[in-house]
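I am writing to request your help with a piece of structural work I have in hand. A protein sequence and the structure tokens that stand for its backbone fold form the material at issue. Please examine both parts with care and let me know of anything in them that strikes you as inconsistent. The record follows directly beneath this note.
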Amino acid sequence: MLKVYLRWIGGDIFNIIYSRHLWMHLLYIHIRKFLFYSTIVFFKSWNHCPIKVMQIFYDGEIYIRQSLGGINRYFYNLISRLPSEYEPIITSLKSYENNLPSHPNLTLHSYNRFGIKPGRLSFALEPYYFGLLEKVSNYQIFHPTYHYLLTREKLRKRKKPIVLTVYDLLQEVLPELIDPTGKETDFKKSAILAADVIICISESTKRDLLHYYPVSEEKVFVTHLATELNISLNSESPLPPSPYILYVGSRHGHKNFDRLLLAFSNLIKKDTNIKLCVVSHPFSDEENKRIFSLHLNEHIHLISWVDDSYLVKLYKNCLCFVYPSLYEGFGIPPLEAMICQAPVIASNTSSIPEVVGDAGLLFNPLSTDELTDRLLFLLDNSIVRQNLITRGLQQVKKFSWDKTVQQTVSIYNSLV
């Protein structure tokens, strides 16, 4: 009986191979496959109807957009640390399952984007799969990982409460750099207005949210991020040559990396032994030209990939860590630097002072001279450097993932 049923699902390709309407037969077959797998999803969800735990539905759009970024790390730590009476439900694509969180009650639904041939048909059916999956899931709270959904639609009101995490207002603050067409902002606005509760990852992000959107402050909460970097890790990877200043992260426009290059070019005029260690993706042709024009090609050490143990080693042995960003919703790298006892020089904008506190030297990110002065001052004052390290170890204690999870669980409970 099973073989007959599977034969019905698969279709008899051989009998229709010479048909003039082959594509119609293929479409028919693939729709039957889609309905078959959707039916399986329904009965899996139906089996969970008796509510024994709190079910939170996480649309996993972010896992397509980034594998190791800050948002990915936020949901990894949040979901992995949820209490045992919670059942997280995550949707994703099969090819993006490498960095998903773990939890004893985790239910994962993934779709093979090109698992049905032709691939275009499989891709077209994808949003319907995720839409049906959400409809038959017996969740209590909907918490999307991003303001764009796997169903490829805007986030709109649902019968169940929506919790939305807003990471930053980058598109609104720097639209010309981040979202010149306004498309991302449009999706984001729809999500913000649809949410029943909004979580901001810093007080700075909350202020920006209330400035740009007509949202009631009563439904906005702040839960800070943290770092899970294990400082006891050891690495055999070699350190960069000579004393070095450390930069970690991407170099998109708002990261203000060019400002660091300008300040560093001023610094090496006074001390040619110092290197700039950049932990990031490879330089573009345009960046290489810029580095060459500033005569920095012999003074920059690029490391394109590090694991946590190597990153800890780089933080622990640097002269200082520099964070020149124009805008951040939170900023985890300064926390990583502080927990590894690296002195921090950082921008005085957005959420960065909130994260760094009095444990870093702050500067105007639009001023090359200010950054240069901070670098020279720190490198010439070992007492100040040690003082910043001590303060940093105290500052980082204010942030923990357990605290983040406790606050988030409290928000979840208030909605049910």
